[in-house]
Amino acid sequence: MIIRKASIYDSIGITKVYIETLKSSYKSFIDKDYVESVSFDKQKRLFMNRLNKENLIYVAESKIGEIVAFAIPEVSKDANGNNRGEITMVYVLDRFQGEGIGFKLIQKSVKTFIKSNINSMVMWVLKDNPSNGFCESLGGEPKETKLVQLGTLDYVSIGYVWKDLESCEIFK
User: Fold this and answer.
1) What is the pTM of this model?
2) Contact yes or no for 145/159 (Cβ under 8 A)
3) CA neighbor of 112 nearest in space, from 6, 5, 10
4) Do the bridges between strand 58-61 and strand 83-92 make them parallel or antiparallel, or are there none, so unpaired?
5) What is the CATH number of domain 2-171?
6) Where are the alpha helices (DSSP H) in the chain?
7) What distance in Å separates the CA atoms of residue 168 and residue 130, rounded to the nearest whole number?
8) Could you read off the pLDDT of 51-77 as tens digits, one per residue?
9) Mean per-residue pLDDT for 98-121?
C-alpha cells in the first residue's frame, strides 16, 4: 500500500471511494435519500476543484493502482484564532478497513502538520459514526461539536482534538 499526495488524475478514484463508503458505511446513520442522491459527476467535480486549487488530499493506493482510501488534511483556526490542523474526511473502502490504512493516512497528515509548525489538530466525525472509537483510540478527545448539513438534514459532528501532536507517540 502506498500513501501519497493525490493529483488531479486521482479525482475519479477518490470519488469512487467517497460514494462507495457513503453507501456502505454511512447508510445506517445518514438519511438514505441523501446517500442515494449523491451524484458521481458532481462529487468528482468537487474533488477536481479541490485538487486544482492545490488543496491537499492524501490517497492510499493498492498494489494494482486502485485508490482504496483518502484523507483531507487542511489548516483551520481554533477558537483563539491560532492555526491548527484539521482532518475533514477519512474514507476507506469497506474491504480495506481494519488494515491500518486510515491510521496511515492520519499519520501522514499529522507529519505534514508538524512540518508546517502546526502542533494541534481536530478531526471531525459524525456523532453516530462507529469510527468515533477509532479517534479516541488514537488519543483524540471529543472537545467540540458543530452541525453539518447533508442534503436537507443537519447532523452533529464531533471534533476530536489533539493539543500537542509532537508529543503523540502513536503518530511517530
Assistant:
1) 0.90
2) yes
3) 5
4) unpaired
5) 3.40.630.30
6) 11-25, 32-37, 40-52, 101-115, 132-137
7) 23
8) 888 789 999 999 999 999 999 999 988
9) 93
